[in-house]
Design a protein that fits this description.
- This protein has 547 residues and is an alpha/beta fold.
- It folds into three domains: 105 residues, 2-Layer Sandwich (Beta-Lactamase), CATH 3.30.450.20; 156 residues, Reverse transcriptase/Diguanylate cyclase domain (Alpha-Beta Plaits, 2-Layer Sandwich); 201 residues, Alpha-Beta Barrel (TIM Barrel), CATH 3.20.20.450.
- The protein contains 20 helices and 21 strands.
- It is elongated and about 100 Å long.
- The C terminus is likely disordered.
- It binds ligand C2E and calcium ion (CA) (2 copies).
- The site of ligand C2E has 21 residues, from β14, α11, α12 and β18.
Amino acid sequence: MENNSEGVVITDSKGNIEWINKAYVDITGYTLNDVKGENMNILKSGIHNKDFYQKMWKDLNDKGSWQGEIWNRNRQGDIFAGWATIKKIKGDFKDKYHYVGIFKDLSEKKKLDIRMSELQQKDSLTGLYNRNYFLNLIGKYIEDDTSIFTLAVIDIEGFKEINDSLGHLVGDKVLIELSERLKSLMCSECLVSRFEGDEFVLICKDISQDRVDNLLEKLIRKIRKPYKIKNTIIHLNFNVGISRYPRDGEDTQTLIRFANIAMYKAKDKVNESICYYSKEMSEAIEEKFYLANYLAGGLKNNEFYLNFQPIFDINNNTVLGMEALLRWENPSIGNISPGKFIAIAENTGYIISIGEWVIREVCKQINSWKRSGYSLLPVSINVSVKQLELLNFSNKVKEILEENNVDSNLIEFEITESVSSGDIPLIIKNIKRLKKLGIKISMDDFGTGFSSLGQLDIFELDKLKIDKVFIDDIVSVKKRQNLVKSIIAMSKSLNLVVVAEGIETKKQLEILKTLGCDLGQGYLFSKPLEVKDVEKLLSSSKTIAEQ
Ligand code: C2E
Ligand code: CA
Ligand code: CA
């Protein structure tokens, strides 16, 4: 048995593992030491439902053997397909018996048609449809434009606390039990999926409002019943937000966004846990809450990327640098602008890890351009006060630069006037160290915040970016011109380079030239570009023809 090319496992009568052979180690990644005494269900993939295992045990008890295809999970957490034969055999003593399982690894064969397989459709923990499958399904319903449907987002109140206080295993068990209850209510018109974490989405197609209401009421009643996990009884509360196609929205992402907004409305209500979306709901307030939720998974799921907006010498249209601008695209709710999510990231603290990701990503990108032979330009990175207040921020930056072999004179940091409401001594310490590394510092959005002249000095700035609001009416409002003129004059006297932001018209450009502005940025020159377009820019001669 040891040398059998198929994986062999022997368990006791309870399914606890007693012995495995070498092929089994190869297939599953577990050694005998890892699994001895563990129950066979450590391999459970979550793909098969209860019925599957019930039938298997029934066969084993009635006929003494079972055969079939089974999806298991290996030590790394990957799911693989196997053909299994399990036999019940008598042991040395009268009433003692064992099970012997023989597995043939089908993964290679399965890899070929994996796209078609259930695996691609199902969430591995709960066996419910996964997000991708569901998003596609909703898309199909919309394409098939005769259909109407209702989308319900179900959220467990305080699930994070359960995970934190009782552990992830208990959290997982709750999710599995909840999923079973949800499944039991589904029919051909109503399907449920687990999007991620504790986020469940339900879709009901072509059924009347009454029936939907009915179903949801039943559902809430059922899922509110106490959960008995091991010896703990857990009571859960739920909030359900609903949007309807086509009345509330025309595309998947809008519908999911609106259902989320309604879900947060439901949270506010004392006696109701179900809330339908309506146009009157204030999106701004509700949005803040659910965006924070989605933001939490953004880094892990690779939902961020960068655009780069060129910065020009306005006198000869030469590109002198570019600004990295963060973009976030979530598969469920689509593109969300940094104007919306940066503030939330700052309030929740996620900005620390997201901000670090931006710095690392910029460095990786520069390094990759370097290796491909492009001529390099300095990149400005927006940094938040929260980052500058980290004790070891400058060290981290140094580490990232070294890790990617990037020269510090290719990196600039943009800070905003909000630094003056932060922990100033700490921020100054960090800035001093960054400057020592050779990184330049710009003051962003100048004129919108405190605009204290004293600040310009203590933060040892190199550049000042005049905010777009001043540029917007520079043509029509004479007073603005004078203001911009004095900002420029003052900056020059402090040896600062001046950048005008948000230049959209030739007229604005002409005036800025006469006022002595050095650099400019704005749609007139270029919108923020994707990496491939930056590469075109870098490989063409550095100047851009007159627009
Ligand atoms: P910002 O740093 O002032 O960036 C300039 C914003 O103005 C960008 O918006 C850019 O797309 C837009 N813009 C540039 N030229 C024009 C123009 O001619 N007309 C108009 N209408 N808009 C123009 P975006 O990318 O939406 O970024 C908004 C803000 O989000 C940024 O303002 C910045 O404060 C923040 N942000 C973006 N990326 C990051 C980041 O990586 N970290 C941090 N902390 N904040 C970021
Ligand atoms: Ca900026
Ligand atoms: Ca700005």
